[in-house]
Amino acid sequence: MDSYLPKIGVYAGSGTSHSWLWFVDLFEQAGMYDLFFLDENKVREGGLDYLDVLVMSGGDTFAVAAALGAEGARAIHAFVSGGGVYIGSCAGAYLPMKSSKKPLDLFNFVDVKITNLSKILPKMEMESVKFSTSYGCDFIFHPVREAVRLNMLPGPGKDSFSFDAPLYGGPGMIPEDPSWTLAYYESFLPKTMFLSARKIAEQTLIGTGAVIRVPYESGCFYLLGP
Known about the structure:
Elements: E1 8-11, H1 20-29, E2 35-38, H2 40-44, E3 53-56, H3 61-81, E4 85-89, H4 91-94, E5 112-114, E6 117-118, E7 132-135, E8 138-141, E9 144-152, E10 161-167, E11 173-175, E12 181-188, E13 193-194, H5 198-205, E14 209-216, E15 219-224
Parallel strand pairs: 1-2, 1-3, 3-4, 4-15
Antiparallel strand pairs: 5-11, 6-8, 7-8, 9-10, 9-12, 9-13, 12-14, 14-15
């Protein structure tokens, strides 16, 4: 009997960048070719009803939230609370975090502190259009780009291990419940590009959550910085 493969939906609607294609490459390498692609209209009109997993990649968090709107937020809430799995990276990770900023306040699902959020923008050490973005009266800033080293915490019957991953604007995270953390930012690498002072980068990311799993009623949110 063939093993069951989950029905995976990849959001490729308004607000996303080309990074959803990286998820497609990842799933193809894992032998998962039966993917469903959704835009904001399909999410609002019941497109999540027959999925097991919803993947939300990088892009503009505010634009994604505005495109999905209240109907899209309700659809994601019903999907995850009913047992669905949400996987979000970069903008997709910021989206379900609790916020008072409109329209992000429609997606107040998980209690996670963003470590790269500041009222005062640090000095930019390297010219980059990806360094920061407004977040109400505050700023989301990106202290580094490219390769970083993560440490995957031990699971049942498994030891911890380190691995390298690319970071392009994702958050450092401090979850309300420390047990939600699956991997943390361990160190920087020779290929790491510092957009802020190294000390600020270390204070912002090292030791904070890079991958977290947040239980949510019958489902869960997986939020990825890298």
